[in-house]
Amino acid sequence: MRDFKRKIENKKVIVGVLGLGYVGLPLAREFASAGLNVIGFDIDQQKVRILNSGRSIIKHVPHTQIRQMVKSGLFHATTDMAGLKKADAILICVPTPLTENRDPDMRFVVSSTKTIAKYLRPGQLIVLESTTYPGTTREVMVPILESSGLKAGKDFHLAYSPEREDPGNKDFSTKTIAKVVGGLTKKCCKMACELYETAIVRTVTVSSLEAAEASKILENVYRCVNIAMVNELKIVFDRMGIDIWEVIHAASTKPFGFKAFYPGPGLGGHCIPIDPFYLTWRARQYGMPTRFIELAGEINTSMPHYVITKTIEALNEHKKSLKGSKVLVLGLAYKKDIDDLRESPSIELIELLRKKGAKVDYNDPYIPKTHKQRQHNLKMTSRKLSAKMLAGYDVVLISTDHSDYDYDWIVKNAKLVVDARNATASVRRAGKKVIKA
Length: 437
Ligand SMILES: NC(=O)c1ccc[n+]([C@@H]2O[C@H](COP(=O)([O-])OP(=O)(O)OC[C@H]3O[C@@H](n4cnc5c(N)ncnc54)[C@H](O)[C@@H]3O)[C@@H](O)[C@H]2O)c1
What we know:
The protein is α/β, with parallel strands linked by helices. It has helices at residues 2-9, 24-33, 45-52, 63-71, 107-119, 136-146, 186-196, 209-239, 244-251, 275-285, 291-317, 345-355, 387-391, 407-413; strands at residues 14-18, 37-41, 75-78, 89-92, 125-128, 157-160, 179-183, 203-205, 326-330, 359-363, 395-398, 417-419, 434-436. It contains 14 helices and 13 strands. The chain has an eight-stranded mixed β-sheet with strand order 3-2-1-4-5-6-7-8, with helices on both faces. Strands 10-9-11-12-13 form a five-stranded parallel β-sheet, covered by helices on one side. The longest helix is centred in the middle third of the chain and has 31 residues, at 209-239. The model has no long low-confidence stretch (mean pLDDT 96). The structure holds nicotinamide-adenine-dinucleotide.
């Protein structure tokens, strides 16, 4: 262990990051910026090729940063997993989605752990960062890693430290967000903290792997439930003629006891719509229901239908039916200013609109065309915005409030706007042209 610390101090430690996506890449960047050698491992050859050529694969990680990392010699990416042997620490950032039955899909965690087991050597530190249910690291990973013949907590070290990445957040980055760490043993926890503290502002230790796993789930359940609450209140207040955004703004002026959450067209992204159901699945094994999560899920998944109803009503006021209408969806990403469309409510909106007979196009400055996803294949390309083209649609539906959009101009040129994000709040003289949804 003293060797490990000395290696870190002398910047001789080699960090392996397994999975170079939205989480793994910024993490690799932080360690490389701290002067450590980082090897990025991924099964996606194209990603590896792009990164090694000094280009980024994520909008909010600029090309210049990747170029600098590669040029400095402190980072390279590879699909050759034999290189895992060289790493002193391996941080696992692979996907943890849901299966079609909404159960945890552990394929990526299992396969990456099997790969590590193949090359595991004494003294290595393995840390799982992927979001998952409490019990994963101990129950899923330990048996696989120990199939190597090495003993966890003795021959090699194991910890769990959840990633808290918030893509596009201008106030916090991977480096400045404290990291929760739980170890299989105290020594495992200490080693993981020593490593993270070279690159990340602060670590917060908890007593077990399970407490660390549960802390991440709590964070995401908290968001999911609170978003569901404001989504429900949005519908209730709308019926009363009250604007939910105005109400939230007023309530936010209370300096204690209130944290603002905002309604929207539904949940999106890799985390909030998915992670709470990891806990639901686990709780079932203990004979426990997770009623808050189920109810929040029910409300949040109904939101795209609410937006469609508001769109139908808005068109109705203009003596038009949705069937046959031309609809432009603005924003495909699941939240503003990012290029990630995983689980985006915009996709669901487009599918629902098409099902009802609307002719749908989209514009998103960060997503020039759609790619095939696990459950969707829209096969669409982003339409270039112009005053003339906006005026050609029966309704413009704002689904993602990217900062780059000029909302005054959009409202001025569109015939009718349905705004699911309150993006047009500051547009003057919007009048009856804008319907909030
Ligand atoms: N995206 C976020 O904002 C965010 C935030 C916090 C936590 N998380 C969690 O972090 C984890 C990773 O999410 P992400 O958004 O970075 O996913 P991602 O899909 O962007 O990246 C995952 C990467 O892992 C690679 N991969 C898959 N299997 C592999 C294997 N066996 N070996 C090596 N590489 C493999 C994929 O090719 C991909 O490049 C998930 O558990 C997620 O819930 C994500």
